[in-house]
Amino acid sequence: MSTKYKATTTDQAYFITITTVGWVDVFTRLNQKYNIINALQYCQEKKGLEIYAYCIMHSHIHLMCKATNGFILSDVMRDFKKYTSKKIIQTIIEEPESRREWLLSFFAKACELLKRDQSYKVWQDGYHAEIIETNWFIKQKVNYIHNNPVKDKIVTLPEDYYFSSARNYASLENELDVVVLDLF
User: Fold this and answer.
1) CA nearest neighbour of 73 among 153, 141, 8
2) Are 139 and 131 in contact (CB under 8 A)?
3) What is the DSSP string of 23-37?
4) pTM of the shown model
């Protein structure tokens, strides 16, 4: 697999986008958003993940982050996706979900062309990772991440979207601690 958009260095931060197969709107449900929050918190505590900005959209997640303490970000993302895939499917099966049959069928069908034996495929292969090298890039990507829900007309102001670090930057109640960068 190409490393062009993979986080293979151990000392740099990246802008990452992780997307569900078929851009399926899995994260319209509160329980699924908390699956992601809980997994990110675990990665922060146990896998050296340092998050600077994030946003959980309906079908994808944006992160500005890096791995610390000797961890490699590509390994952290691999484990994150593997764990959350299982958790997302478990939640679809065990908790109320009006689209249960359709979602399970869609995620099962996404496995048809895979070489490995797998029952469900939730995430697209890989992830899009861009190395952060300039302050301009940091400001541009943090702004992009925080304005994603505004662009999709979910909220009017970035800090009104509860599952985004825009709340951290506005010093509002939030679910996930991040390292707030001085963007001025």
Assistant:
1) 8
2) no
3) G---TTSHHHHHHHH
4) 0.91
